[in-house]
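Structure (tokenized):
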């Protein structure tokens, strides 16, 4: 687990700046939801934290370390995407352990990590199946399992549920939260769905057009929105 700090983070693609000085702190073990309309810069901020894009100016810290120049591998972060691509020719267990296989970890160690992760996610009796034999929700769990086995300091989720149907989305929200309650890993969860933000977050960061409009607990934002944008965005159903 670790704290995460964004300090006046700016990001430009060519001459176009898309993040205009974003600053906020995430406490150790906190579940923070980044919410805002499509195109406001949520994924870019996550990708900067993961090291998949270079920061233009400002600082990002994970724990005590400024990670601006660190390659993704050295940041101790695991990311779950919207389009979770599982390897079709690998079993559930092999998919979950794949990053450890790549890192040449011994088989016994991989099994030791995959077993408990599968148990947490209710996948223990599916370890020998192939992705095509799984439901959408089960596949999503395998994608989370891949992240868990790495035992990262920070979990990043980028709209992980947006490909699922409405009913499954609701139950998966609860599963992600259960997972967090068990592991207490610092988590940054991106969504454009207000309900998801309100029901899942310890703390919500509301973004619009590359800036942070307000940060607070769900009820704080609901009761005392800082401006009309936040009021409209948080207050109105999707
Ligand atoms: P969100 O995840 O909130 O929908 P993004 O972070 O994906 O928003 O995008 C923020 C802005 O940055 C958008 O205007 C998008 O078009 C732009 N953008 C994102 N990635 C790139 C890129 N690789 N090159 C140029 N522009 C990009
Ligand atoms: Mg996005």
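Design, position by position:
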């Amino acid at each position: 687990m670790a704290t995460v700090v964004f300090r006046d983070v700016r990001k430009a693609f060519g001459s176009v700046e898309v993040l205009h000085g974003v600053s906020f702190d995430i406490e150790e073990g906190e579940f923070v939801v980044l919410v805002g309309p499509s195109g406001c810069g949520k994924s870019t901020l996550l990708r900067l934290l993961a090291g998949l894009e270079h920061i233009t100016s400002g600082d990002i810290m994970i724990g005590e370390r400024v990670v601006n120049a660190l390659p993704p591998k050295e940041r101790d972060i695991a990311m779950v995407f919207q389009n979770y691509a599982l390897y079709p020719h690998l079993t559930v267990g092999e998919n979950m352990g794949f990053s450890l296989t790549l890192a040449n970890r011994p088989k016994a160690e991989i099994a030791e990590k995959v077993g408990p992760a599968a148990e947490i996610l209710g996948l223990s009796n599916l370890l020998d199946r192939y992705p095509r034999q799984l439901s959408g929700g089960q596949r999503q769990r395998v994608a989370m399992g891949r992240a868990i086995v790495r035992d990262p300091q920070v979990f990043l989720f980028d709209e992980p549920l947006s490909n699922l149907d409405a009913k499954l989305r609701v139950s998966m929200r609860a599963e992600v939260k259960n997972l967090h309650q068990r592991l207490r890993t610092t988590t940054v969860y991106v969504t454009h769905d207000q309900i998801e933000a309100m029901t899942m977050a310890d703390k919500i960061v509301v973004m619009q057009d590359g800036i942070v409009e307000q940060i607070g607990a769900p009820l704080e934002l609901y009761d005392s929105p800082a401006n009309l944008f936040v009021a409209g965005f948080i207050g109105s159903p999707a």
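Reviewer-requested clarification: Strands lie at 4-13, 16-26, 31-35, 57-62, 65-66, 77-80, 154-158, 186-191, 203-208, 211-216. The first strand starts at residue 4 and ends at 13.
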